[in-house]
Amino acid sequence: MTFSLDTVLDHLEALVGFDSQNPPRALTPQAELFGWLDTHAPGFETSVLDYGDGCLGWYAKRGEARTLFNVHLDTVPIAPGWTQDPHKMTRADDRAIGLGTCDIKGAAACLLNVAAKTDGPMALLFTTDEEAGQSDAVHGFLKESHPYDRVIVSEPTKAKATPQHRGILSAEANFKGMSGHASKGGVSAIHAAAKFVTDALALPWAADYRLNFGRIEGGVKPNMVAADCLVRFGFRGLPGADTASRLDEIRALAGDELVSLGKRFEGPPLPIADDKAQAGQKALMDWAAGIGLDLGDPVDFWTEASLFAAAGYPALVLGPGDIAQAHAADEFVLYADLEAAFNAYMRIMTHG
After folding, report:
1. Contact of 16 with 105, CB cutoff 8 Å
2. Under 8 Å between Cβ of 166 and 301
3. How far is residue 344's CA from residue 154's CA, in Å, rounded to a whole number?
4. Burial of 10 (0-12, 13-18, 19+ CB in 10 A)
5. What local confidence, expressed as pLDDT, does residue 315 receive?
């Protein structure tokens, strides 16, 4: 089956037009998005799985498929710096520009095109809660048994089959000071948090673990000593990393102003630390190589592939786009990547 760029871009343009920012994760089971998906999945049995709090899964099945394709349809909030309406896709010379084109509505558009061009067994799970460290939809889906030999998680890998990625741990620290007039000095929660951040970034392993402080919030105004400060951060360990010890090291850097520090979300690396799961991953990559998929190097970002693998479903990551474009202003995906991903998905459909 041949690739139709115009058809894929029509699908992608429609998907970009649906506001699925997370947060706020405002989609409901009755959202227009799901009706649109139903109309573009002829011959499929479809349902919307509701796991609460906006954590949804559009599940589409045709026949007895052995491979499950997984895509998250939620996007990050609109970043500063966009030069166009993020929800109105632009078709440039070699790329499509719009929120979610790379991460990862481009993959959904390719899969819908594959579904339309084939009539064999196929299964799709499109979720809405990946971007805010939730993943309740995938966790909920995995509470039941499913007949799949493998899962393809369609995060951006330039359409290469990728068997390994880092884990992720995100955490929140809360600092408490004593409010007062800045002319008299005092115990500032923001000062305590700033020292904590500076010391953590100086840890010898910080860069290797991609330690990042993504949110600092507190205080009222410059002439008031800040009584409170919230800090959210995360880091990404390779398979086998001792993330609990790393978090303890970070916690030990905080002074007496620290009120609490705890995990918000933790996702395991791929492959997970289990002999049976690792054997399954190796067999999957041998299968991928055997059917002619381009194999990629390990990636530094986390995906829900590790959740599927931990539940007993060997998983690989394969989708159009470059992670460098994800979460960025004027996000884009190259047409060449869309075609490569379409061809890879067609190859999987033919052989799996």
Report:
1. yes
2. yes
3. 11
4. middle
5. 97
Give me the phi and psi of 328, to 5 degrees please. -110, 155
- How many domains does the chain divide into? 2
Summarize pLDDT for 196-248 with one digit per residue, the tens.
Answer: 999 999 999 999 999 999 999 999 999 999 999 999 999 999 999 999 999 99
Give the dihedral of Cα atoms 320, 352, 34, 126; nearest 10 deg: -60
Q: Are residues 116 and 250 in the same domain?
A: no
* Residues 187 and 86 placed together within one structural domain of the fold: no
Q: By C-alpha distance, which of 130, 127, 76, 70 is closest to 100?
A: 76
Please give the C-alpha separations between residue 22 and each of 50, 72, 128, in angstroms, as whole numbers. 16, 11, 8
Average pLDDT score over residue span 3-29: 97
Mean pLDDT of 304-311: 97
Write out the residue range of the structural domain in which residue 75 sits: 5-165+269-351
Query: In CATH, what number is assigned to the domain containing residue 330?
Result: 3.40.630.10
Annotated active-site positions, please?
130
The Cα–Cα gap between 250 and 18 comes to: 39
